[in-house]
Predict the structure.
Amino acid sequence: MHPAERTTPIVRTLLAAAAGLAVIGCSPTPSATGAAPLAARVPPAVSGEEVATLTAPPLVPPPITRTHPTKVIVNLEVIEKKMRLADGVEYMMWTFGGTVPGSFIRVREGDQVELHLKNAAGNTMPHNIDLHAATGPGGGAKATLTIPGGESVVTFAALNPGLFIYHCATSPVPMHMANGMYGLILVEPKDGLPKVDKEYYVVQSEFYTKGKYGDPGLAVLDMDKGMDERPTYVVFDGSVGALTGAGALKASVGERVRLYVGNAGPNLTSSFHVIGEVFDNVYGEGGSTIAEHNVQTTLIPAGGSAIVEFVTEKPGDYVLVDHAIFRAFNKGALGMLTVTGPDNPQVMNPVKAGLTPAGK
Amino acid sequence: MLLVTACMVLPPGAAAAQATRAAGAVAARTVAIPAGAYRPLYGADTARVRVPAFRLDRRAVTRGEFLDFVRADSAWRRGRVRPVFAEAGYLAGWPGPLDAGGPADLLRPVTAVSWFAARAYCASRGERLPTTDEWEYAAQASETVRDASRDRAFRDRLIALYAAPAGERTRPGRGFRNVFGVEGMHGGPWEWTEDFNSVLVSADSREAGGTSRHTDFRAVCAYAAIGASDPTDYPAFLRYAVRAALDARTTIDRDGFRCAAHA
């Protein structure tokens, strides 16, 4: 018997239905005329094509010097692998590009992004991607569900400039996010961002594990803690200490520093602060314009971002924290910016230490 | 069909003996699952679905068993199978179309088989793939109870089993034997079901088949948790997401199957 004869009519119907599924969107069916409402933006025509330079945290791809929109190909691969969560603690991370947070993507307003999402052949789970920068059902999630060994492609127009979270949105989404599937995509405004001396990529996120903070070995996800919003770890750039010691961010005295800061959650809102600095500029909630000057602590919602800028006036260590301070002290939400260069005593100068009782 | 042939060529006594042996082999290979009810992750409502008694393979079909099948039916050999029935990765891990590897490999669950091939295999035994209801119903059993689906510790075990690297999941004997006597439903590869694509969990997990279990495209837009009977059942979400990501031609090296039969 030929294999075709073994498929039942139901099967053929299902196949036909599956073929139809691809074209059925999530949002209400567009009007029969197919005409877009007048207010809808039309992406600009693009010229040329390039492959996006992606970077691992805490690095950021170089600023875009192009003055026209183009087609940008982004190649992102999902990799599930054991990674360090803290000293002596490993975790089976699900990653975009092999790091947590995932690769930093940088495009320009108006670009036509062609995103290739690969799911590594050795992985166990299907994955997809929802880019908050993308306009359309699911932010691309519907179009990118990808089995291990597979690759999906979605194109989208980068209509809105700003700094956006991307993350996996495959069921169950809290688990995929709790396991490390998030990153940032920057859509530079048409005219670019003002030039700075240093740019860094920082994402705050939580891990929910069985047992206590620092318990050695392979930590595993604790869904109850996740549902109760009681994280075991709150970290910058994917692990305790990722941005301290050898991983510390670096700048010289007098440099303008820009931090692209995301908060992946999955649950907590971040009170982002750099100890010993005041943010000269904050692009609030990751939008494209400076919303506020002279900010001490900026709120970053889960699934949101902020861009902060400041000038380093004095050498020393500056500590990045979530100023919900138990998170910094006991859960890992600490990073370091080490500033080197000539001292600047007019800015701050230790005059007398109070380490001995007065009068002695 | 085999038994009919045997009856024609063997003396009556021998045929009866062989039939008895064959029935015994089926009994050893499969497990009787008693009728019962379970609560599907996605349902028309949160009502329990009644599952009639059926038989289910004790273990996932092995490479060795599948090798016998493709030896007997050349249409399902790698290189011969029609592309419409299987992707290029069909049986990709095998050294050759009629070579499934060494003795240890023959005991591993067969993977990289399409739904069509899995179905054809079961049909060659006079059996079928289990329905999703049957599979999920049998799979909610732990070693000691028939329904452990609400047991947090059981769920945690499943998540840990699922998180293992793909290579580990195709080792023979992964997982546990549940109270029905079925082995490896959670520790082994993902498994095809007859109606794997009839529960339309959207590709975007936050949208889900909310109101209908069957082909209700309007329902694809609700938030996943809204359509789910128990939004805390993460292992079930994972299984349904895997099924939603497959199509009938898909061949991945972590997807196998087992067969079912009527009681």
Q: What stands out?
A: The longest helix of chain B spans residues 12-29. Residues 1-12, 207-223 of chain B have pLDDT under 50 and may be disordered.
